[in-house]
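[job 0417] fold request received: Metal transporter Nramp2
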Amino acid sequence: MDSNPKAEAAPLLERAYDVEEKVAISISEDEDRGGDEHGRSLPPFSWRKLWQFTGPGFLMSIAFLDPGNLEGDLQAGACAGYSLLWLLFWSTAMGLVIQLLSARLGVATGRHLAELCREEYPRWASFALWMMAELALIGADVQEVIGSAIAIKILSGGVIPLWGGVLITALDCFIFLFLENYGVRKLEAFFGVLIATMAVAFALMFGETKPSGKELLIGVVVPKLSSSTIRQAVGVVGCIIMPHNVFLHSALVQSRKIDNSKKSHVREAMNYYSIESTIALVVSLFINVCVTTVFAKGFYGTEVASTIGLENAGKFLQEKYGSTLFPILYIWGIGLLASGQSSTITGTYAGQFIMGGFLNLRLKKWVRSMITRSFAILPTIVVALLFDTEGSAMDTLNEWLNVLQSIQIPFALIPLLVLVSKEQVMGIFRIGPIMKVVTWIMVGFLIVINGYLLLDFFSAEAHGLLFTSLLFLVLALYVIFIIYLVSRGSTLCARLIH
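[job 0417] inference complete; emitting structure tokens
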């Protein structure tokens, strides 16, 4: 059976990359003949080939390093000390499994998740999934743009106000378009520089503050959770899985030119993407651990621990540690700027794929970039003008945005699991029964964790009979749609298992 019977689709369908945009992977004639009919035998490992496949995983890893994640890291460190490092480690591991499934889907089918959702579900369900994906992307992008604007305000010494930083950040769309014209590898190199900047900046912070290595190791190895840190724990888990990133990774892996009709090529690509994605998320875990431990060392158990956010974090660090080699305030600002800029550009990239895939749009990429960028920039400018970043209003807004993204998680993960389990879509590359059980348990755990966040948040916000009734109606529709998606997957699985 062909790995993708629908691969020979009409050329008018929207595709993540045109043929001329893809990076050619050099495969020798000997390698091409290797493997059995199922592609189980792989050629010897090649560092050169790993380098050719390197890029998509690092772009994907930026969602693990966006300003929302950094805020979750610093709050976990300040409020819970080193005790939630184990949860950060296992959340990253779960995130890796989800992203590898996304990459598997893209490589095996030659199409990305948004395209496949459009074909798999009825029009009404596909439209609903698209709206959910767009809302998740807007919520993430608002946080990322605000984070970048805060960094610009810090580095300018307060000269550039928040709304000015938002406008400057809006211009990153043109940086993205400029680099994209010079090829995928140039764009990936740019993101590599931004990730390296974050790694160096936060490693310098770690070196200057000198957190306890013993406490760090205990925090990673020994699970600890108390009632006083449950909110930070939920935040750590909730920040890791980003709905738009699941859509993004399935499209990014198609930037390499491989022959999807040859199973050995597909399996080899999956192998290299697995290695590359693992390395990328190890780097992201290192950065997140640095941020968490710095704030654990400096502020855990202090009176200001619960008041630290993205903007005042640098000020608190400066007051605590002063200037040794370089003002720590500016180290924080540089790292935050690299985080904000990289994540907003990848958000624009994800928006292109989501809009094009669900709606089958053949618009020019610059048009789609402007549309998706406008969706985020316009509400962010309103936020920057109306909210004081040093007040509680911005914290409340961030809570609402986190809730918005938590709501969307099932609508990315459930379709992903349904599709990677389906033989008609994946052919021989569908996941096996054991992996299916493990991933459904994992996704169920993530949905429960985010459900706790939603209940905790709305129980505090719900006031009045009218609001409570409306909230109950919305939640009922939400649960019904999730049940529909799960039951559809269960029906398909039952039909495929003899």
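[job 0417] notes: The CA atoms of residues 3 and 261 lie 7 Å apart. The chain has one domain: 50-408.
[job 0417] exit 0
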